[in-house]
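Fold it.
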Amino acid sequence: MSHAVAGHVAVLICTFRGERYLRRQLDTIAQQSHPHWTIHVSDDGSDDGTLDILREYRQRLGAQRMQLFDGPRQGFARNFMSLIARPEVRADHYAFTDQDDEWDARKLERAVQALAQRPRATPALYGSRSRLIDQDGRPMGLSRLFTKPPGFANALVQNMCTGNTMVLNDAAMGLLRSAGTDVQVSAHDWWAYLLVTGSGGQVVYDPYPTIGYRQHGANLYGANRSLRAKWQRATRLLRGDFSQWNAQNVSALQRNLALLTPASRKCLALFERARGCAAPGSLFWLLRAGVYRQTWDGQLGLIVAALTRRL
């Protein structure tokens, strides 16, 4: 699939039983002000009307604009990694998207303009704030505005840019492919943030909300704004989910030390030391590593994790 026009964007969608909101998501992609895009969908074995909707849109948009693939059926992270690995998916930029959100008309335009200001050979990642919407598309406020700088020390303990807002340049996608798409990671977007920052790449965080991020019972990760969401996050921390995600990410990074800068390797080693010992040593090494989350309550949770051996 050729993309002679510079700034061509490959939109990567992973679907699974997405019939309820999928049409709205596809419509908002098709209505982008940035005209140079193709859609690549990996379906993970949907048994509802998802595939019928996808075939309908492929017929409407044309096979040159939309490709459909079968996913590995091993969860959303593996599905996205399988799509990243496909040789048919080639472009100047790559946008991740969920199956149930709504894009603002200028989402791709803003991302491409921001990434075009970075050196092409430098891995670069764009992410933005989100508008929160309910099941019917009604506004529910905005995702939290992050003010601390992006970086590897943040990426080790938090993904500050949700995948449904992310756009990567070709160098960043090349980095993900070099790291091996068979790595076991907690989430494809968090892994992208880790690799781009860890290799000395650049991250653009846009405070302008470029998507409507739908909050409903079926989505895997909400926006963490409500008291209920914060309670769920605290529960996951105490249950050990955070520690398990970190273990997966650290193991994947260990496989790819050659891609990391010396400063990132040092930060990772100190973080591993913090994970491997009990309090108060864990907290000491955590502080030495300099890792941080974007919000005060997130930072507090990080300290609790260190003191309770749940890093």
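The mean pLDDT is 92.
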